[in-house]
Amino acid sequence: MILPITLYGDPVLRKVADDIDLNYTGLQELIVNMFETMYNAEGVGLAAPQVGLPIRLFVVDLTPLAKDEPSLQDFKRAFVNAKILERSGEEELMEEGCLSIPGIHEEVFRKNYIRIQYFNVEGLSCDEIFTGYTARVLQHEYDHLDGVMFTDHCSPLKRRLLKRRLTDISKGITSATYRVKVPRI
Ligand SMILES: [Zn+2]
């Protein structure tokens, strides 16, 4: 089932999300729905607050990028109760977008190496290292669990320039081609 995606300005996107019980009711169905919602919107990652739920869950599918990066061939995963234990390496600048901020793309600095602990879709505890683009996507989604949007990482000047467009998005004025939930603010 395709779920509506919350837009910039929705209070749920600014909450620090809570860990969930691994027996969280409907977890498997929610993960399936989040993947379906993400594919429908042509995204590579989606966090639970983006479908209105303040819980520490996000999904990522990087397999469309496998033709340039063969190691991503099977990279379709759900991350439950993730915790980034380490961020290091170089700060890399790369353009990002977000399904909750349709039409805005800006360059953001992120570390290119992370170590992350999480539970996978089977409830198994994992502790892994990711680098490069994968580390970037995981940090973007992880930020959503802490109420952080990628535009928060832009310079104060850039944020000032974006303010009008972000306000428009929060009023539901967007170019999104997928189902969205307009914030009630
Ligand atoms: Zn996002």
Written description of the protein model:
The protein is an alpha+beta fold. It has one domain: Peptide deformylase (Peptide Deformylase, Alpha-Beta Complex). The chain is 23% helix and 29% strand. The protein is built from three helices and seven strands, in the order βαβββββααβ. The strands form two sheets. A five-stranded antiparallel beta sheet has the order 2-3-4-5-6, with helices on both faces. Strands 1-7 form a two-stranded parallel sheet. The protein starts with a strand and ends with a strand. The site of zinc ion has 4 residues, from helix 2.
Topology:
Elements: E1 5-6, H1 27-40, E2 45-47, E3 57-61, E4 76-96, E5 106-119, E6 125-131, H2 132-145, H3 156-170, E7 180-181
Parallel strand pairs: 1-7
Antiparallel strand pairs: 2-3, 3-4, 4-5, 5-6
The structure holds zinc ion (ZN).
The CATH homologous superfamily is named: Peptide deformylase
Number of strands: 7
Class computed from helices, strands and strand pairing: alpha+beta
Q: Assign the CATH topology.
A: Peptide Deformylase
Task: Indicate how many domains the architecture comprises.
Answer: 1
State the end-to-end distance: 26 Å
Low-confidence stretches: none
Number of helical regions: 3
